[in-house]
Write a structure and sequence with these properties.
alpha+beta, 6 helices, 3 strands
Length: 183
């Protein structure tokens, strides 16, 4: 329950991508068709536009939004070079915190790889899991195609992530000015 004057924060991942090549465009279109066949009542438009519109209709005020591009691919996930560069000296995969502490020039590239990996997982859980057997736990999704990931790397493809916040209006109409409230 959000108190009047409190803020709601949203992170919304859209189905469509930015800077898609032909292979990626076909993969996303094919996914949309499969989703529509699985559930004809699904609306395949922009999730961020629909959700932020609903937030506005519910009376939230001061809506602010920012679009963020989450990379689809840093490098090909199965490559040996990728696996070696994201491992520490003991062979364990480095965490994001470890990568951020790394002062070398490879740190930005390693962070991009990690963010892309999380973005692909999130996209699969939000959209592909609806139509994939085993809920998307196997290797049968669109990201199993190395040629697709190569194209995404070349084109600089990214997922459309909208980050937004809005304030629930206060119940009192004593002052015309709304104030935020720490909760």
């Amino acid at each position: 329950m959000l108190k009047p004057g409190g803020y709601i924060e949203l992170a919304i991942l859209d189905l469509d991508w930015l800077s898609m090549g032909n292979r990626a465009r076909r993969a996303v279109r094919s996914l949309k068709v499969k989703m529509q066949v699985a559930d004809p009542s699904l609306v395949l438009g922009s999730a961020s536009d629909a959700i932020l519109g609903a937030v506005g209709r519910k009376g939230f005020v001061g809506l602010r939004r920012a679009g963020v591009g989450v990379p689809v691919s840093g490098v090909i996930p199965n490559s040996q070079l990728n696996a070696q560069s994201m491992q520490g000296t003991d062979g364990e995969e480095l965490s994001l915190a470890d990568l951020m502490k790394d002062p070398t020039s490879k740190s930005d590239e390693n962070i991009t790889k990690m963010v892309a990996k999380v973005g692909r997982w999130w996209y699969t859980r939000c959209y592909e899991s609806v139509v994939l057997p085993n809920g998307g736990q196997g290797e049968e999704g669109i990201f199993a195609d190395e040629k697709l990931l190569e194209e995404c790397e070349k084109w600089g493809a990214s997922f459309k992530l909208t980050v937004a916040y809005a304030m629930k209006p206060s119940l009192s109409s004593e002052s015309g000015r709304r104030r935020g409230m720490s909760v």
